[in-house]
Amino acid sequence: MSFNYLLRRTLQALPLLFLASLVVFLLIHITPGDPVRLMLGEQASDEQVAAVRARMGLDRSLPEQYLSFIGRALQGDLGTSIRAARPTAELIGLALPATLLLTAAALFLAVVIGLPVGILAALRPSSLFDNLALFLALLGQSIPSFWLGLTLISFIALRWRLLPTSGYGDWQHLVLPACSLAPFLAGLIIRITRTSFIEVLRQDYIRTAYAKGFALSPVVFRHALRNALLPIVTILGLQTGALLGGAVVTETVFGWPGVGQLAVNALSDRDYPVVQAVVLVSALIFIGINLLVDLAYSILDPRIRYQ
Amino acid sequence: MKKLINIVSLMILLSLILSLSPLQVLAQSEIACESDVVVQADDWLSKIAEKVYGDVTAYQAIADATNAKAAADNSYATIDNVNVIEPGWKLCIPATGEVEAMLQQSAAAQAASSDQELIVAIAQDIGALDIRKEGSAASFSLLRHIYEPLVWFDDGMQLYPLLAESWEQVDDTTMRFNLRQGVTFHNGNPFNAEAVKYSLDKVLDPNFPAWMNFALVDLVKEAKVIDEYTVDIVTVAPTPSLLWRLTLLDMVDPQYAETPEMDTRPNGTGPYKFVEFTPSQQFVMERNDDYWGDKSNFKRVTARIIPEAGTRLAALLAGEVQMINAVSPEMLAQINDSDTATVTTAPTARLVYVSIRNDRPPLDNPKMRQALNYAIDKQTIVDTILQDIAVVAKSPLPPSLRSARSDLAYPYDPEKAKQLLTEAGYAGEEIIFAVGAGRYPNDDQVGQAIAAYMQDVGINVKFEQGEWATFNTENRKGKESPFDAFFQGWSADALDPVLMLTFLFKSENTESRTSYANPAVDELISEAALTNDPAQLDSLLNEIQGIVWDDAPFIFMYIPKEVLGISSNLKGFSARPDEFFFFNDAYFAQ
Questions:
Q1: Which of B562, B551, B515 is nearest to B410 (CA)?
Q2: How many domains is chain B built from?
Q3: CB distance A42–B493 less than 8 Å?
Q4: Residues B224 and B319 both lie in one domain
Q5: Contact between B582 and B155 (Cβ < 8 Å)
Q6: Contact call for residues A235 and A245 (beta carbons, < 8 A)
Q7: Are residues B501 and B441 in the same domain?
Q8: Given B259, B289, B324, which residue is the final one in a domain?
Q9: B373 with B522, same domain?
Q10: Is the peptide bond before B362 cis (omega within 30 degrees of 0)?
Q11: CA–CA distance from B58 to each of B83, B263, B310 (Å)?
Q12: Residue B524: exposed, middle, or buried by beta-carbon count in 10 A (0-12, 13-18, 19+)?
């Protein structure tokens, strides 16, 4: 991957970021609901609400507010939360590690379970194992994570007291949320892996290898895997990007202080700076992940070259 | 391999069986009642305790004995909350010897709690750590352990002196406060009259987002420093409300409050000191061993933030936390079934109602609005949808407010409603009724029930449901509100009836809700705001409530209860009508 290519990709990302931030800015400012009125309560006088809004610069025109936001963002200042009176960067800085941890744990579980099962299913198509694997994959993708989370808490944490019900602390707090988030991903991975692998195994070069007398040896297997991984990596990249935006439902159920919770609370509070900052950061992360996926492509498939 | 699978399956089976077997309940020791007492009107537990034992603090012993007896014999009352007893309840009065034993036990338990930590779970995240900016009940409650006002309400809503030791009325509009001496903020700075003046001035400043500004700005003119520990607070006119309003004003350190740390590291005079706060995670405070007053029992209090109701409940039942707030009706059954948890409740100072646009025909006719009140079966809604976490409203004023009446009623009477509709000449005009869901427990279901009751008596109602913030903003447009009727509530902050009546029913303030205007009511409210004579105040408030009830600018629905889930061994703690919680007297029974 050449430096020129990286530079071009980065520059291409900028208009994307602008667009994302502009759309979100407009949407949240158009939605009825005033953060200051929400903060001060019903009884606050209109004079006080107006005065506080003026002090926070919320009475300026929308273009003025947007340009001010972008201007400061380019200098690294992501604004101050209206409700918490702290820099949004600080709030995101606290929430992001939690989300990263949960995402990594869920992905790890999903890959460790999904990949082998998907491959084995592909190697024995239409067998009992294959059908079972497909059934489990469907189950994983269909079970609502909300229900799964509460059920896990109800049995494992409450009835059997094996793990804590909620919160963020040591590895024990991570188990249930990760197990609640992983099934959907695992199901997806099983299905994509299986399909992708079956496709690859049907390719001419594999059949030629068989014809030449190679059984599914480790060498052939490695080649097949490399090719099969391409679509899997794509999907994983997209899912990771989505997860890093915060698995809101799981975070809410388990009281996991991640970016998803931060964003949802900020939306209810109409805390504009926080929402805008979260969107910007999430978009950046997503773009970064896409770049990593492309990098993985070029490693997996030597035919792919980026100019 | 097969053997391993067998062993594993056996283990799983075993653990399933074990988890399903019921826990043994330890038998309660028998309590003998020396006598029984039936509660009379105007009784409260400590009054009875004083009469029987000559000791005010023995009330807990009476409550415990009565609850123990009630488990076997339900002619005895069950006391959820030592501050809430009703006339007609039967109490068990244990023998004096037993009481002494109980008091000694509780004193020992309190001492034992002094090394312990209390962990609670709250539903909503805390925003800024500046108590003047944080209006949500849970956040305010926690910060009230760190900050203190001049005067406050105890758990029974009786006013008591805090940072002000005493006060006297110097003239019609001036109240002189004698401050407690030798009190310091946690950072060592002194508390004095300057701090009081600064704290008040800041809250009165309209540019500063203090949510309690509304309660003081029209009432208080200024504070005057007389000497280091004496301050005069001057009001705009004579008023009965000053002390109530002052319960919302916390004392802050003038130097510290101007620094940015004020939002992130609280610094007050209270019985607890701030330790740390991680947004969306937890808030931790520890006992202030240099506190000027009675030191709290718990060494440390941690508030965890758990937004999901089911998870919060699980944490309580698993013993991970010892108190939870925001208990919904669906959670009550599981808490009551549990051996380790229970609830404490109190009727709040909040009225939930449906505001009606009094300026829009046909709703401008009082008979129409009265018809709406008769059309709805509020008791059934409270019993079924709300499962008793509310009581039907018997006045525009919630019961914990001074002079609140309890004799007003709109019983469910669909025939009468239809009759009134006919008399009002209702011709089938469409009434748009909206609920901004998510604000009150089961408000969506209550709203749907109300719409159905309206339809039953022949009202052409269009029901709309949406998100609270959005719909509320729309409704606040007042005359241009897209809704003819809107489901909402009002909290009587500082328990001040004059404040509540002024905001809800004085014509200059009603536009955003109802545009209700009754000049007689306006005049009476103005009079009440200027009356320092308690008897006259009572009589005026009485009259206002009667008129407003008949005019029916609202559909008066219900008074929610504050419901807190607590561990069964948490004592010295109960739910409060002002919806705050306070752990100062709490301890674990052994």
A1: B551
A2: 4
A3: no
A4: no
A5: yes
A6: no
A7: yes
A8: B259
A9: yes
A10: yes
A11: 14, 41, 37
A12: buried
B21 in contact with A, Cβ within 8 Å: no
User: Count of alpha carbons within 13 Å of B548, Cβ hemisphere only?
Assistant: 30
Q: Whole domain around residue B119: which residue ranges? A: 112-123+263-344+562-588
Please indicate, yes or no, whether residues B405 and B435 belong to a single structural domain of this protein.
Answer: yes
Residue B277, domain CATH: 3.40.190.10
Residue B133 carries which DSSP code?
T
Q: Which of 215-274 (A) contact B at CB < 8 A?
A: 252-255, 257, 261-262, 265, 268-270
Residue B260, helix vs strand vs coil: helix
With respect to residue B129, please indicate whether it lies within any of the assigned structural domains: no
Strands B90-94 and B350-356: unpaired
Q: Do A253 and B308 touch (CB under 8 A)?
A: yes
Q: Are residues B238 and B273 in the same domain?
A: no
Q: How far is B315 from chain A (nearest CA, A)?
A: 6
**B385 and B301 assigned to the same domain:** no
**If DSSP codes are grouped into helix, strand and coil, which group holds residue B435?**
strand
Is the CA virtual torsion A221, A226, A230, A233 positive or negative? Answer: positive
Residues 42-81 of A with CB under 8 A from B: 42-45, 47-48, 51-52, 55, 81
**CA distances to A99, A102, A288, B263 from A189, in Å:** 21, 18, 22, 46
Task: Report the CATH number at residue B473.
Answer: 3.10.105.10
Structure tokens belonging to residue A45: 């006088």
Cα angle A92, A93, A97 (rounded to 5 degrees) comes to 105
**Number of continuous H segments (helices) and E segments (strands) in chain B:** 19, 22
Whether residue B136 is contained in a domain is answered as no
Tokens of B94: 């244990």
Indicate the residue among B241, B259, B277 that finishes a domain. B259
Alpha carbon of A146: minimum distance to chain B alpha carbons (Å)? 10
Decide: B447 and B385 in contact? Cβ < 8 Å.
Answer: no
Q: What is the pLDDT, as a whole number, of residue B229?
A: 96
Q: Give the ipTM.
A: 0.88
Q: What is the mean pLDDT of each run of 10 residues along chain A (307 residues)?
A: 78 87 92 90 89 92 92 91 93 94 95 93 90 95 93 94 91 95 94 90 75 68 82 89 84 93 92 93 88 83 70
Q: Say whether B263 and A161 touch across the interface (CB within 8 A).
A: no
Whichever domain contains B169, its CATH number is 3.90.76.10
For residue range B443-473, list pLDDT tens digits in order. 999 999 999 999 999 999 999 999 998 999 9
A99-114 pLDDT, tens digit per residue, is 999 999 999 999 999 9
Rounded to whole angstroms, the Cα distance separating B27 from B340 reads 14
Task: Evaluate whether B507 touches B518 at the Cβ level (below 8 Å).
Answer: yes
**Parallel, antiparallel or unpaired: strands B460-467 and B300-305:** unpaired
pTM of the model: 0.86
Residue B416's φ and ψ, nearest 5 degrees, are: -60, -40
- Residue B58 belongs to some domain of the structure: yes
| Residue B259 at interface with chain A, using a CB cutoff of 8 Å | no
Residues in B touching A35 (Cβ below 8 Å): none
Same domain, B248 and B295: no
What does the block give as tokens for A109? 């579980």
Quote the CA–CA distance of A181 and A242 in Å, as a whole number.
12
Residues B290 and B307 in one domain: yes
Residue B1 lies in a domain: no
